[in-house]
Design brief:
By secondary structure, the protein is an all-alpha fold. The protein folds into two domains: 201 residues, no CATH class; 67 residues, no CATH class. It is built from eleven helices and no strands.
Length: 275
């Protein structure tokens, strides 16, 4: 496949618009927006190569693992990044590391697009105020749900469609022409570094010093078992068992501490009574 068809580009563009407008499931759509995995899956289904699409998307996911969204604003939009980077990678046969370097600037542009969506919504504020003053339920619903959703589709669908139908093949052709050159090597190195930064950010955000031992255990287990071809399902089972043992041991230790504390309190009360 050297290019995307009109239908393929339109389906992906409609998906991105639906996610960015929160039309799919309301607040639950935030999960789809903050993670590129579902967008990568849609791209893979549309382009007929789910396996490679998910390999590329998994690499892109790493750079967003520790990203926060204060006030709903993201420094880079994962859904937009995956919607463009995954098709480019599939069309150009890119390695996942090189696809990351494509995803980062695209995601950054997507964040500006999302902020522009807020700007458009500000024009609906007067309509909302009038609807609230008149206590018109239907008008309020239109002003805060229907109209912003339509505005989001009008904004995202044409731009994402253009980026996919005309932009993705061009980028893929350019990268294919640079295959084997130092430019591609630089993209792969930078992409790999960005993924490492995402993992490091996650550890910094959610990592506790007393729990880091589990991270290192998982890492070295993956290195040791690499030649055995251990699947992710096996790792998930091992992780579940280790977590269960840790929680069980921690619970037993807490019960013993509580019993010891109760015994000590009883002994002190007896001493006070005797005195």
């Amino acid at each position: 496949m050297d290019t995307l068809t009109v239908v393929q580009s339109l389906i992906i563009a409609l998906w991105v618009a639906a996610v960015m407008s929160r039309w799919l499931g309301g607040g639950a759509t935030l999960t789809l927006r903050f993670s590129p995995l579902m967008t990568g899956l849609v791209c893979g289904i549309v382009m007929g190569d789910v396996k490679q699409a998910m390999i590329v998307t998994a690499a892109i996911q790493l750079i967003y693992m520790g990203v926060f969204s204060p006030g709903g604003s993201m420094p880079s939009e994962p859904a937009v990044a995956a919607a463009v980077a995954v098709p480019v990678a599939l069309l150009g046969g890119l390695k996942p590391e090189a696809a990351i370097s494509v995803a980062v600037p695209v995601g950054l542009l997507g964040s500006y697009l999302y902020q522009f969506r807020f700007f458009i919504n500000t024009f609906l504020g007067k309509y909302t105020d009038r609807a609230v003053e008149s206590m018109d339920d239907r008008a309020i619903r239109r002003s805060i749900i229907t109209l912003p959703t339509i505005a989001s589709f009008i904004l995202f669908v044409p731009l994402i469609f253009i980026a996919l139908y005309w932009g993705a093949p061009v980028i893929a052709d350019v990268i294919a022409a640079l295959e084997g050159t130092v430019v591609i090597h630089i993209l792969e190195v930078v992409g790999g570094g960005l993924a490492a930064i995402g993992i490091a950010t996650t550890i910094y955000v959610i990592g506790r010093k007393d729990y880091l031992v589990f991270f290192f255990l998982a890492y070295f287990l993956s290195v040791i078992f690499k030649t055995l071809g251990v699947t992710m399902v096996t790792y998930a089972v091992l992780g579940t068992l280790i977590a269960a043992m840790f929680v069980l041991a921690k619970g037993q230790a807490a019960d013993k501490a509580q019993v010891s504390s109760s015994d000590g309190a009883t002994f002190d009360d007896d001493d006070d009574d005797d005195f």
